[in-house]
Amino acid sequence: MKTEKLAELGGPKSVTQDPGDIFRWPIVTAEDEQAVLEVLRRGSMSGNDVTKRFEAEFAEWMGMQFALAYPNGTEAIRAATWACGVGAGDEIICPSMTYWASATQALSMGATVNFADIEADTLCIDPGDIAHRIGPRTKAIVVVHYAGYPCDMDAILRIARKHNVRVIEDVSHAQGGLYKGRMLGTLGDVGAMSLMAGKALAIGEGGMVVTNDRAIYEQCVAYGHYERTGGPARWTEPDAAVTIPQLKVFAGLPIGGYKHRINQTCSAMGRVQLKHYATRMAEIQKAMNRFWDMLEDTPGIRPHRPPEDSGSTMGGWYCPRGLYRPDELGGLACRLFCQAVRAEGVPMCQEGAVLPLHLHPVFNEADIFRQGRPTVVAFGQRDVRQGPGTLPVSESIDEITFAVPWFKHDRPQIIAEYAAAYRKVAENAEALLQKT
Ligand SMILES: *Cc1c(COP(=O)(O)O)cnc(C)c1O
Known about the structure:
Layout lengths: L29 H13 L6 H14 L3 E5 L2 H11 L7 E5 L16 E5 L21 E7 L8 H11 L2 E5 L7 E2 L2 E2 L6 E5 L12 E5 L2 H11 L20 H5 L14 H31 L6 E3 L17 E4 L9 H10 L31 H4 L13 H4 L1 H4 E3 L8 H16 L1 H7 L1
Helix pairs in contact: 1-7, 2-7, 3-5, 7-12
């Protein structure tokens, strides 16, 4: 293998087979179609009978008392953030390296975000970069199990309990993943997640909040599930699960004007997807672990997965990454490594991930409430903005990680070709360095 010339330098490509359906996701069968059709034919898209069944099954799957469905993950996280007591002038802490919908919603509450750095080995929030950011107005820490990797929850929860700050788990990348044997989303005060069609647990467009905290659940109901607080009509009874007396005062109107009911076609698909998820997730884990096992001892690249005996897993392995170690490859830039892997027939191999949020104009300049000053500092007592150079690991994302194929089926021959592409480039780094 090592002697073969890189495809970028005129050699043969590593990947030659048709991948077939190995990447196709979500897996939609006649069972999903039937479930969705049933909702359409009944005309019950805006009801909540199917949704409530989906929620009950979801809560049971996660071993949680309460599950509340949302039209998307953004709204699920918005509600969870508000339910944790976040309001005007407050702060939340969130890793800079995440999709914007982990934390941008806080701005809509007049709150602001103090971004923390990530760890280079896990790509998750660095527990050592949290405590010094906690101030008198800090209400919550949003943690993201990034690309499926479980955050260091023991350390995070210790800090949060000590400072009396809530923990919101953004589980959008890690449905069904485990931290030391416990399911992600069940460890903090509340779990919230996206279930949109690109995620590992994909139901169309959707989101979910899970919690064992009745007050958080009821705040979420009050915020956007107005039909459950006593109904838009005066004669509708509130949901039996809703008990906070004040909520009855607000019956029929959502606090703040949000509408959070999911389309039941998605709940119907969600019930079917959830039923099959454990089996499909296990298949993904077999395939992805096989890929990384094939790459053991390859210089310059490391798997992004917890140690085998840790009891922690990558769930459905959403958006899988590898970790890059240029010092083992003579300093070859990650961008050039990825370019050569793409030439081998792996189109998804890109360096980095999303752009760090702390540098984005929305968190520096945007005047959302049209007050004549940036919203990020308009309500708070201190300026939490951080310029370039302040969160070095997040800012180095293009040099420390790269994308790998997201296999949905364990097909050793196909997986071997993709693994060979990465190994070939790593073992021929010298040739690439000479070229540049
Ligand atoms: C996808 C995603 C969201 C937002 O979910 P939507 O369903 O797209 O609204 C939030 N957080 C993370 C980390 C995500 O990847």
